[in-house]
């Protein structure tokens, strides 16, 4: 009942629950609430549970090691893996200095109202789209491609 209905373990200490169990089976001794997480639920899980557990984390070695040989399927986050690939590609292709300069330039226009207004006026004069500049965020892979 506790596991099936997701009841708190403390239900075994409630007077109404104790009275119900005593009425149903006077000889039954209720376990303490501390026995549930320590012994009863893990035992029940081993016997009854057929649910496969998946855990999605970043690619850190300490996380992977923590779940090695555990009854869970450890999956690495595809977005995090993609971020690592893009970071490597940026470094290996010497794009990093250009991206840093772009970040400084965009930062200037995002923080200076007068500079931003002048840029917008220039865009209008040249018949260019007047969308806002997007700042690159190093930990967001799509911010490099969308900036």
UniProtKB/TrEMBL annotation:
Lineage: superkingdom: Eukaryota
InterPro entries to which the protein is assigned, alphabetical: RNaseH-like_sf (IPR012337), ZnF_BED_domain_contain (IPR052035)
Chief location: nucleus
Entry's localization field: Nucleus
Entry keywords, A to Z: Metal-binding, Nucleus, Zinc, Zinc-finger
Classification via PANTHER family: ZINC FINGER BED DOMAIN-CONTAINING PROTEIN 39, ZINC FINGER BED DOMAIN-CONTAINING PROTEIN 4
Protein name: Transposase
């Amino acid at each position: 009942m506790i596991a099936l209905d997701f009841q708190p373990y403390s239900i075994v200490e409630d007077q109404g629950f104790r009275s119900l169990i005593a009425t149903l089976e006077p000889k039954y001794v209720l376990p303490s609430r501390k026995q549930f997480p320590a012994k009863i639920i893990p035992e029940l899980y081993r016997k009854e549970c057929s649910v496969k557990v998946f855990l999605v984390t970043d690619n850190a070695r300490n996380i992977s090691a923590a779940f090695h040989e555990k009854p869970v399927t450890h999956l690495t986050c595809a977005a995090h893996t993609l971020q690592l690939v893009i970071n490597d590609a940026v470094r290996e292709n010497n794009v990093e200095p250009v991206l840093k300069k772009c970040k400084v330039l965009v930062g200037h226009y995002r923080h200076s109202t007068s500079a931003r207004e002048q840029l917008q006026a220039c865009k209008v004069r040249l018949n260019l789209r007047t969308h806002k500049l997007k700042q690159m965020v190093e930990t967001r892979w799509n911010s490099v491609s969308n900036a």
